[in-house]
Amino acid sequence: MLDRLVVDSSLYRDAMSRYAGHVQIVTTAHEGEKRGVTITAACSVSDNPPMLLACVNASNPKNAIFEKSGRFALNTLSADQIELANAFSGRDPSLTSEQRFAMGNWQELVTGAPVLKDALAAFDCRVVEFKVMATHMVLIGEVMGVSFGEHKPALLYMDRGYRAL
Known about the structure:
alpha+beta; 7-stranded antiparallel β-sheet; 12 strands; 45% strand
């Protein structure tokens, strides 16, 4: 059995900064409140049934809405949506949720979670599992609906900056 080794968190973050991640906005709605967060930690879990996972920071109490709502949408961004990515990243804390959502064109598919109409692809999910793992909440969702925007270059995040692919 291996002894548990502890890697310094700043060293880990530096290494992860070299890992390219697709920029996405995970959204939800619950009792008249909307929440959206820019993330890069998301991936497919299964294609039968279609399932994916998304991770959001557990230290922000506003993110508790993702568990309460039981639904979320994963909205994949294109390279021309940097302004939207920044708005939902929290870089400007003066922006309210209403102001952030006013920057995009949103719709609902199946669950009632906000879906970005011009996302490269959007996945509307019901939460099938929720778990707090260290600093993050892991949302596993069964995909209930999918929508597509125009096919164009994807927005990635690498080396602590946006990139296009």
